[in-house]
Every structure is written in structure tokens, then in C-alpha cells.
Design brief:
Oligomer: heterodimer
Shape of chain B: elongated
Largest interface: A-B, 78 and 83 residues
Strand content of chain A: under 5%
Order of helices and strands of chain B: HHHHHHHHHHHHHH
Chain lengths: 332, 345
């Protein structure tokens, strides 16, 4: 969703800058497009005004760098040293703090470009002017189109996070249903790793919403608690793959596990679409059936039956947590 | 250590730009900035995949330069050309934003989109210019990739150690906070430490991306690295599971009985984390470290004294089941830490 909104902002910025460029047809006008479109990519999942400030400061630094680089280009050695230092500083800052990685890159890139396209004094002033105008356009589009409100942002982040949690739980249960984990260990782990990292990123964003000074931040904190708990429980359910040495044992409870994962998937999907009715009866019946299989069969055939008992307890905890999340999400 | 890595990376890229400017001044066939810009772009690689990602970025740049130049030559209607630039650039940025969480810039789609934008805004009038640009782009790629490989090359062993150490330290603090949450219900510290672990894992994930799970050739990849990183991730999963258990409100009288044994385990587990960190810092271990076997046996013995042995009776109480789950996690943690220690030999 964020990627889609960013793309729309990019499109709007692009139409504005291209229109101005083609309408006025003034020298160095393409710098308006370069600065506008590149700065439109700046996006921090953080305070709205932090985004605006970052775009503004980056635009100023780009304008300065473009100006100085143009004059440095008159002498090859001077240029080489100048770009050496600006590259060192921008790369260092970008790697030191990931917040500035993108803007540092743009500063470096546009400075290099300006040096390679050096012009006389009149045109360089025009070039700097276009960079500043491009910065202004990027800021304006950010302010006007979809200024985020906490509730909207929370909704968006939760939707994406819940979808990913759903993918994660499906992948984990797939291990138990396919039973080829030991042969394809790394193939499964790479999928789990990628989803875990993405979920952590969303949890961090929801956390940043929960500490803002706004009434909706309280709701964000509640949802954060539930989402984190759900994530922990799903991870705990996944630990079964290490504890059960013989995965063929899962054949015994395959039907029940399938029912459980389908029920979890259905609920997480409904939550992501804000259509949850808090009716988790399918999940509950799946857990009860799994518990029945545990008591009648797994307790006898399993090499370490306790691990199944732990999983059953985790499933009940997941059921409770999903119910609580559904109740809180009604306020969004 | 992270700063040392950042300083070296910054110096390497700055040197590449320096060389590219000198070379471009004398040998460039088109606009000299193509050599410098290509050198910058192909150096946007993650640890351990310098050559592979460098070549991937080079191919993306060649494609965008070729396509962009040809479009600029053959599409005469300005409005159509502008429309194509807008659509293609937006699409590339969408792909980049969709796939990346933090390190937006390192993705090939964004580099492709940026290069394409530059090419289309500086149109060529003939096909000869395209060949000249491709020549310059190739030179820039050679300078960038070679500089990355030769000057302060990323020594995967060093970077690996430098990036794992903060993770292990974060795990140790998180484990302590979880145990404190279990006994003292201090959730704030546990959540703070959890955030620290998340940040550290995200940073590590950016430096060591998916290659650690990939099959196929990677000169920096050794089975030991992969195994170590997989085990490290496993520790995180165990800790998250423990955090969930620690949130459960145990009966204080029940839990009190295990205080000493659990804290003893914690002490020894933290000793192991410290020992691992020492070894990764290339220091010798000055004293022996427990493998947590005795501590676990003591904990299980205590548990059996307090709780009925039979499985059927275990789930009479949530406290019993949750504590059994805790012991299972502590066992898994032990297995993972022992495995990490063995991987370091």
C-alpha cells in the first residue's frame, strides 16, 4: 500500500515538473525534473513533518553541491578531490544513519552530474533555481496528497502486517504438512527469514505510531501489543519444526493442522480487510480436534509428546489474542 | 567496528570516484559523468556479493542506457517521450519501494529507474552516442567493481564477525530482560530489549542479505558462516517464544521455587554469550564455560519435585504447561548456543 501511494505521489510530481519544464522551456529546466522526482522518493515511516524537513534540507544541500561542483569542474584535479570528499561524506553519513541513505545518495549523484555538465555563471544560477523549485514541488505534493493521519497510517500498517503474519503462519504450517523440511531446510528458512524481517519492519512502524502525541496513538499501542504477541506465538509454533525429529509424525494430525492453519488464515485475512466478526469458532474447533488427536495418538506415538501439548497451549493463546485484536481493531 | 566498516566503505567509494574522474577526463567518449556515475552505482552492493551484485547493476545500467538512448532517438513526439519517462520511472520506483524495507537504494529497479531518467533527460541525437555511452558505462563499471574488490576489500570474515557481535550482545540483554519479566513483571525493559534486538537484526539483515540461505557459488560464503547465521536466527526465535511465555501471569508461590535455578541458568547462558563474543573478537578464552547441561538438569529436577510427572495431569494447570514450555525453550537455547560454540572452532 505504501509503495502504491508513493508511486501515485511520484506520478503527480512527475506530471507537475514535466508540465512546468515543457511549458517554460527554459535552460537547465531538466534539473527541475531530476530534483523533483528524486526527492519525491524520500519517505520516512515517521513523523510527517520530519519527511518534509528532510526533503527541504536535502534540496538545499543538493542545490549547494550542484553549484560548487559546477565550478570545481573547471580543473580536473580540483574536481577529483571535491567529488572524493563529497562522496566520502555522503556515503559515510548514509551508512551511519540509514535515514539519510537515500538523500545522501541523491546529493552525491546530482553533484557528480552537475560537474559533468558544467555551464557558465548564468546557467548555473538557473540550474540551482530549478533544483530549489523541484524541492518545493516535492514538498508540496507530500503535504497536499495523503498527509498521513495516525489512524489511517495505523490501518495501513496493520493491514500489511497482518497479511505478512498470515503468510508466515502459512509457511510454518506448510512445513508440518509437506514434511520435507529436513531435505529442503534452507529453502524453507529463506522464506521464513524474509517474512520475519518484513514483519519486524512493520512492527517498528506501528511502534513509532504508538509513541506519537495523539489520541489514536493509544489505539496504536494496543494493536502493537496484540500484533507483537501474535508474532511471538507464531514464532513459538514454528519452533516445533526443530523439536520434532521425525516429521512423518505430523501425518497423524495432518487434517487437524490443515483446519487450524486455514482458520488462522481466514481470521487474519478478515482482520486485514477489517471484516472480522470475532467468530473464531472454526479455529477453536480445529484446536480441540488437534487436542483430541494429541490425547488419543500423539501422546503414544510422539517421541516427546510434551512439545505438542505446548503447541496446543500456544494455539489457544493465539485464539485469545486474535479475539482481542479483532475487538480493538473495530475502533479503527 | 561498524564505524571501521563504514569508514572503509566510504573511502573505497570516494577513491573509485576519484579514479573515475581522472580516467573520464582523458578517456571518456561521451559525457564524462557516465564513468563516475556508473562507478558509484555498481558499488551499491551488500557484503559478500560484491562481484555478483556489481555485475547485476552494470547490466541494469547498460539496459537502461541502451533503451533510454534508443527511445530518445526514435520517439520524436515530446509528449509521448515524457509520458514514457514518467511511466517507466514510476514503475521502477514502485518495484523498489515494494521490495525493500529500509535499504531502498540498494535495489536494482531503483538504480535502473534513476539511470533511465538521466539518460532520457539528456537525449542523444544518434546511435553513435549510445555506443560511446555504453563504452563509458563499461569503464565506470570496471573501475567501480575492481575498486570494491581490491581497495579495502570487504573481508567477509571480518564483516561477519563485526556484525554478529552486536546481535549476540543484544540477545544476552534480551534474555536477561525476559527472565526479569518472568519474575518481576518488568515488561518495559523486556520491550526495550526486544526493540534493540529487532533493530540489530534489521541492520544485520541489510549487511548480510538473503545470500546466507542461497545455494550456488559465492566466494565469500562458507558453510560455517551460513550455519552460524542460521543458528543465530534460531536464538532470536527462541527468545521471542520465551518472551511470550514470560508474559503469562504465573502464581508467585509456584514461580518462586524456580528462582535460583533459572537465574543460575541465566548466568551461565550469559557467560556463553560473552565467550562467543570474546572468540569473535579474536581473544582467547580465559576460563571455562558451562554447556548449560548441569543447570538444565537442576531445573528439570526441581520441576519434577514440584509438579506431577504424568502428562495427563500436566495440563491441569496453565502454569505447569507454560513452565514446561519455558524449559523446552531453555533446552533449545542450550542446543543453539552449543552449536554456535562448535561452529566457531
Amino acid at each position: 500500500m505504501i509503495a502504491f501511494q508513493q508511486s501515485i505521489r511520484t506520478l503527480i510530481t512527475a506530471f507537475i515538473v514535466f508540465f512546468i519544464y515543457q511549458y517554460f522551456k527554459l535552460p537547465e529546466g531538466y534539473w527541475l525534473i531530476l530534483s523533483g522526482l528524486l526527492l519525491a522518493q524520500v519517505y520516512l515511516k515517521d513523523l510527517f513533518w520530519k519527511n518534509i524537513f528532510l526533503i527541504f534540507i536535502s534540496g538545499m544541500i543538493i542545490a549547494l553541491n550542484v553549484f560548487v561542483a559546477n565550478f570545481a569542474a573547471e580543473n580536473m584535479l580540483v574536481l577529483a578531490f571535491y567529488l572524493f570528499f563529497t562522496t566520502f561524506i555522503t556515503v559515510y553519513v548514509g551508512l551511519f544513519n540509514a535515514t539519510f541513505l537515500l538523500t545522501a545518495f541523491f546529493i552525491n549523484l546530482l553533484g557528480t552530474l552537475s560537474a559533468g555538465l558544467n555551464v557558465d555563471d548564468g546557467d548555473i544560477v538557473a540550474r540551482v533555481g530549478w533544483v530549489l523549485l523541484g524541492t518545493f514541488v516535492a514538498m508540496l505534493v507530500r503535504i497536499v496528497f495523503w498527509p498521513p493521519r495516525i489512524k489511517q497510517e495505523l490501518k495501513r500498517e496493520l493491514d500489511d502486517c497482518l497479511s505478512l503474519l498470515n503468510e508466515l503462519q502459512k509457511d510454518i504450517f506448510l512445513i508440518y504438512l509437506n514434511r520435507d523440511y529436513l531435505d529442503k531446510h534452507y529453502a524453507y528458512e529463506i522464506e521464513l527469514h524474509q517474512k520475519r524481517m518484513q514483519i519486524l519492519a512493520f512492527i517498528q512502524t506501528i511502534r513509532s505510531l504508538s509513541i506519537k502525541k495523539a489520541p489514536a496513538a493509544i489505539l496504536a499501542k494496543k494493536c502493537l501489543g496484540h500484533v507483537t504477541n501474535i508474532y511471538e506465538i507464531i514464532i513459538a509454533l514454528g519452533n516445533l519444526r526443530y523439536r520434532v525429529k521425525d516429521h512423518t509424525t505430523f501425518e497423524v494430525c495432518e487434517k487437524e493442522l490443515k483446519k487450524i492453519t486455514d482458520a488462522i488464515s481466514s481470521e487474519l485475512t478478515d482482520l486485514a480487510k477489517h471484516k472480522s466478526t470475532s467468530d473464531l469458532s472454526k479455529l477453536l474447533s480445529g484446536i480441540l480436534e488437534f487436542e483430541e488427536v494429541y490425547r488419543s495418538t500423539l501422546i503414544l506415538v510422539g517421541s516427546d509428546p510434551i512439545v505438542y501439548l505446548i503447541s496446543i497451549r500456544n494455539l489457544y493463546a493465539l485464539h485469545d489474542e486474535l479475539k482481542l485484536l479483532a475487538d480493538d481493531m473495530r475502533e479503527i | 567496528m561498524i564505524r571501521s566498516y563504514i569508514t572503509k566503505r566510504s573511502l573505497t567509494r570516494a577513491l573509485a570516484v576519484f579514479i573515475a574522474v581522472i580516467v573520464g577526463h582523458s578517456y571518456s567518449l561521451s559525457e564524462p559523468f557516465w564513468i563516475t556515475i556508473t562507478a558509484i552505482l555498481v558499488m551499491q552492493t551488500a557484503v559478500g556479493v560484491t562481484l555478483r551484485q556489481g555485475v547485476e547493476r552494470f547490466v541494469a545500467i547498460v539496459f537502461s542506457v541502451a533503451m533510454g538512448t534508443l527511445l530518445a532517438i526514435f520517439v520524436k513526439q515530446i509528449v509521448l517521450l515524457d509520458f514514457l519517462i514518467i511511466v517507466l520511472f514510476t514503475f521502477c520506483c514502485y518495484l523498489a519501494a515494494r521490495d525493500s524495507t529500509r535499504y531502498f537504494m540498494l535495489t536494482a529497479p531503483f538504480l535502473l529507474g534513476t539511470t533511465f531518467l538521466v539518460v532520457m533527460l539528456l537525449p542523444a541525437q544518434s546511435g553513435d552516442v549510445m555506443y560511446a555511452r555504453l563504452y563509458d558505462v563499461s569503464m565506470g563499471a570496471i573501475i567501480g567493481i575492481l575498486t570494491n574488490l581490491v581497495i579495502f576489500p570487504t573481508r567477509a570474515d571480518d564483516e561477519f564477525r563485526n556484525n554478529v557481535i552486536p546481535v549476540l550482545k543484544a540477545y544476552s540483554s534480551y534474555l536477561t530482560a525476559i527472565i526479569e519479566l518472568l519474575f518481576q513483571h518488568n515488561n518495559e525493559n523486556a520491550e526495550t530489549q526486544q526493540v534493540l534486538v529487532e533493530d540489530t537484526l534489521q541492520t544485520q539483515s541489510a549487511f548480510f542479505p538473503v545470500w546466507v540461505y542461497e545455494r550456488g557459488f559465492s566466494y565469500a560464503l562458507r558453510p560455517g558462516h551460513r550455519h552460524f547465521l542460521v543458528m543465530t536466527e534460531r536464538v532470536a526465535q527462541i527468545l521471542y517464544s520465551m518472551h511470550h511465555i514470560a508474559r503469562h501471569k504465573f502464581e508467585p508461590e509456584f514461580l518462586k521455587q524456580f528462582h535460583d535455578t533459572v537465574y543460575n541458568y541465566l548466568r551461565q547462558a550469559n557467560n556463553i554469550f560473552q565467550a562467543l563474543t570474546q572468540v569473535l573478537n579474536l581473544n582467547k578464552l580465559t576460563e571455562g564455560v558451562s554447556d548449560l547441561n548441569e543447570e538444565l538438569i537442576a531445573l528439570e529436577k526441581k520441576f519434577l519435585e514440584v509438579v506431577p510427572v504424568s502428562l495427563e495431569l500436566l495440563d491441569l494447570s496453565n502454569d505447569y504447561v507454560y513452565f514446561v514450555a519455558l524449559i523446552a525453550d531453555l533446552k533449545d537455547l542450550r542446543a543453539s548456543l552449543v552449536s554456535l560454540g562448535q561452529a566457531l572452532r
